Amino acid sequence: MPIYEYRCGNCQRRVSILVQGFKSPPSPECPRCGDKGLTRLFSSFSIGKSESYMRDGLYEDILSDSKLVHGLESNDPRALAEWTRRMSQATGEEMEPEHEDIMGKLEAGEPVDQVMAEAQSMMADTGGEED
Questions:
Q1: What is the DSSP string of the chain?
Q2: pTM score of the predicted model
Q3: How far apart are CA 86 and CA 61, in angstroms?
Q4: Which of 8, 49, 91, 116 is most buried when burial is the number of CB atoms within 10 A of its CB?
């Protein structure tokens, strides 16, 4: 489950919002001042494997790719797919066929909400479990 971090443009407070399941992040609001002018921040992430699985400089490579960062900031499904593939390669994790299907749809530009809803529906139909 992702935690989205924002910076309030009014009071400069850092705000963290936990999103349950495959939902899109909500319209954030600063808990201190109530302002809705929050800017999304890229925070560190953790992986369930030791750092030895990570390719050196991966995080820096991603952040130095301005096209990818811009795509992630603007919620471009193609950028999300690219980021996911890079992380998968860096950790040595192979994607399951179902995930490959999801990545293909995201790379084709299908909306994230639609792709995730279809994936959840498919998992429910096949008796799969949600992470």
A1: --EEEEEETTT--EEEEE--TTPPPP----TTT----EEEE------SS-GGGSPTTHHHHHHH-HHHHHHHHTT-HHHHHHHHHHHHHHHTPPPPHHHHHHHHHHHTT--HHHHHHHHHHHHHHHT----
A2: 0.51
A3: 10
A4: 8
Structurally, the chain folds into a number of domains equal to: 2
**DSSP secondary structure of 105-117:** HHHTT--HHHHHH
Contact 62, 69 (CB under 8 A): yes
Whether 31 and 72 map to the same domain: the answer is no
79-106 pLDDT, tens digit each: 999 988 888 877 777 777 778 888 999 9
What torsion do the CA atoms of 7, 46, 84, 119 make, to the nearest 10 degrees? Answer: -90
